[in-house]
Amino acid sequence: MKPWYSLYWFSPELWDQFRFTNPLALYLIPGIGLLFALRYYVHRGSQQRLNMSLGATTNRKRTAGLFGNLIRIEQTVISSLRYLLPISIFIAMGMLLIALARPQLVQTHREEQSEGIDIMLAIDVSESMTENDMPPTRLATARRVAQTFINGRKNDRIGLVIFAGEAFSLCPLTTDYALLKQYLSQLDAKMIQTSGTAIGDALARCINRMRDPAMVVQDSAQLKKQRSKVVILLSDGDNTAGNLDPVTAARLAKAFGIRIYTIAVGRTVESRTAASTIDEGILKTIADIGKGSFFRAADAGRLRAVFAQIDRLEKAPVRTIVYEDVQDYYRVYIYWGISFLLLALFLKNTIAGNVLED
Asked: How many CA atoms lie within 13 Å of 177's alpha carbon, on the beta-carbon side?
């Protein structure tokens, strides 16, 4: 740190960084200057002056020129020194007022803490997901939108389950978003050879990844104490395969405090690879049981909007902790004020003060 007598304490850069606890004290400084100016004008007419002759006219002519100019400059300097006493008092009082304003340098550190939530993505990779009503295909569009969704999450653990006629846990809950997006980019309709749509088994895989056997939810108060758990299930068909009924799986998810969002993707089409109708009933039912929501996405734009809405709904609370490192520097200006006050006392009570007054 600079010594107190350094001019560094009056640099504009430093003053821009100061925070004053009592800034009103600074407004008194111009008021003191006005009082000194008022005192000067009031007492200017009452001061006694003695005009002194500096010699005969001939002597004045002889001292004209360079020496005359030097004498006039010397007289001006000596005459100006009479203001040294009031200036010292003004500066001393100004420094004490600055100290009273209490200048501080504050360094602020912010720390954001969030426990995050657990999210399992369950994505249908059956043959019907290769339909091109959501160009280039339903699966490609879902894959791209899911990656964008992951980019917007922070401090959340996200896992991935894929299903067709069977369900497999492709990625456990993780905060390694790069690894998760790599798994998403590799999704293909040929990853599971068994045909069908096993929605119940997919839910069971998600629950198995997130469940805590010691915490089966009994009431809403206990649910609030748990880390939030969410399943986002994306499919384009009805439950046609698997060993577990989707309704039973949804009830099991509810018991573990897991909320379920379901998304039906694609339009109703007629083809050899896709069913002629998309049954939304089971997706709506498990979303209602799981205390979540059902969404219909007939195109890529709507699918992005659905994920954006889920992103807004499922946000973990963020606690912001602010640390402030406060350093006071009022002592520096007290030292300056005392120094100028001592100078004023010296000028007032010694012969130097009498010389300046004369």
From this structure: 12
pLDDT score for 122: 97
In a domain, 154, yes or no: yes
Q: Is residue 151 part of a domain?
A: yes
Structural domains of the chain, count: 2
Instruction: Note if the bond before 136 is cis, omega within 30 degrees.
Output: yes
Residue 2: inside a domain, yes or no? no
Q: Is 85 helix (H, G, I), strand (E, B) or coil?
A: helix
AA identity, residue 39:
R
The CA–CA distances, whole Å, from 296 to 55, 163, 206, 234, 309 equal 110, 19, 21, 10, 12
294-297 and 258-265 as β-strands: parallel, antiparallel, unpaired?
parallel
In a 13 Å sphere around the CA of 313, the CA atoms on its Cβ side amount to 17
pTM of the model: 0.61
Domain extent, residue 22, equals: 7-46+54-108+328-357
| Structure-token pair, residue 23 | 């800034």
Are residues 74 and 121 located together in one domain of the fold? Answer: no
pLDDT in tens, 216-228: 444 445 545 567 8
* Run of H or E including 72: helix 66-80
Q: Is position 323 within any domain?
A: no
